[in-house]
Design a protein that fits this description.
396 residues, three-stranded antiparallel sheet, single chain, alpha+beta
């Protein structure tokens, strides 16, 4: 028995000795090859530049409109009316309700469905409106119920077309008469306003409409832009409302010259806004000014929709110049063998050279993909990269 124990102890001692020798012979430091992404971007605050048509009105007045800021309008569309004179809040609210009813009646009257010749179709529309007005009444939505009742009157008029005085026509005349009375009671005049072009309606005029223009961007300087960013022109803003071109817009911002080395006029970039960090907006650089104290004024243009871009004047954003993805390789592990750049990996406890295709490079690391030949000799994800291979040829 003692002899067997001695033999086992001797065998264990041999195994420990062999492992110790192996460790001493292969003191490798390794890193598992994993995917990584590098984002090259710059954060900035800029001024939004758009094509804006300001609608002015002689004298003073209040715009009565049912439109909301950011709502799209067509060329020639009715925007509302400018009422001048003493402002009575109660009468003004009644006037707004009457305008809504009048527009609803006129809109229903112009509907192709309403004017369909099929009597059965009109009956179906009538039944649908009756159900809707019942639902609105149950919800205690009085305004909606009144509008639906007006539409029912129009449909009934269409069914009884030919009468000398239809209920819808009579109702419309009554509403327009009451509107005229309110306007006169307000002690001023009422002038209807129509959109001169297609675009987006905005009720606020900030005074930058004739200062921050697309034409001004071609001569913008960092000093001029900095001054513009600090201006407040609201006190001098003149206008009732404006129509904004929602198809094309610009942002001008001052950016450090060193952050622009890899872009030029025409370069495609992505914009990321604070209110929508997951949404990347494609834009193109249209202008880069000469540098002043290491800073350039930069203008980018886009035709992509961004919520609030037609009303905002200053925005904070991230300009993403490029994104690189690939296998992360420490620069210290890179070697050149037989004219090819690559790394050594640990394969079956032995060094094996693997090539790659460079995607991105900096002082600390590379991002790479498989070599163009796509052979088994290319570096692959999860390979064990040797950081201190015995091969000591320097990297490039």
């Amino acid at each position: 028995m003692r002899k067997v124990i001695n033999v086992l102890l001797a065998a264990a001692a041999v195994i420990v000795a062999l492992n110790t020798i192996n460790i001493l012979r292969t003191p490798y430091q390794t890193e598992v090859a994993r995917l990584s992404t590098v984002k090259k971007s710059v954060n900035a605050t800029g001024i939004v530049v758009r094509e804006e048509r300001v609608l002015s009105q002689a004298g003073t007045g209040v715009l009565e409109t049912n439109l909301s800021d950011g709502e799209r309008v067509a060329s020639g569309q009715y925007l509302g009316a400018v009422v001048s004179g003493a402002y009575d809040a109660v009468l003004a609210n009644e006037l707004e309700d009457i305008n809504t009813r009048i527009e609803s009646i006129k809109g229903t009257g112009g509907s192709g469905d309403i004017y369909a010749a099929d009597s059965e179709h009109l009956d179906a529309l009538l039944a649908e409106r009756i159900r809707a007005v019942t639902s609105a009444s149950a919800r205690e939505d009085i305004k909606e119920a009144i509008l639906l009742a007006d539409q029912i009157s129009v449909i009934m008029s269409r069914k009884s077309e030919g009468a000398a005085q239809s209920p819808a026509k009579k109702l419309l005349e009554e509403l327009e008469s009451r509107r005229a009375q309110i306007t006169q009671s307000l002690g001023g005049t009422r002038q209807e306003l129509y959109s001169p072009c297609a675009g987006v309606f905005e009720s606020e005029v900030d005074g930058f409409e004739n200062v921050a223009t697309a034409d001004s961007l071609s001569s913008l300087t960092p000093e001029g832009l900095e001054q513009m960013l600090g201006m407040d022109l609201s006190a001098n803003a003149a206008g009732i409302c404006k129509i904004v071109n929602n198809y094309e817009w610009y942002i001008a911002a001052n950016i450090d010259e060193e952050m622009l080395t890899d872009v030029q006029v025409g370069s495609r970039v992505s914009l990321i806004f604070e209110n929508a960090p997951s949404n990347r907006i494609t834009a193109y650089i249209t202008y880069i000014s000469p540098a002043s104290d290491g800073v350039c004024a930069v203008a980018v243009k886009s035709n992509r929709y961004v919520s609030g871009i037609t009303s905002a004047r200053q925005v904070s954003f991230e300009m993403l110049k490029a994104t690189y993805s690939g296998i992360h390789v420490p620069a210290s592990a890179v070697r050149v063998k037989d004219g090819e750049t690559g790394v050594y990996i640990l394969s079956d406890s032995r060094e094996a050279f693997r090539t790659f295709r460079e995607v991105y490079k900096c002082d600390e690391f590379y991002l790479v993909t498989e070599a163009s030949n796509g052979t088994a000799e290319s570096l692959a994800i999860y390979d064990e990269i040797i950081l201190n291979p015995k091969e000591q040829q320097s990297g490039t």
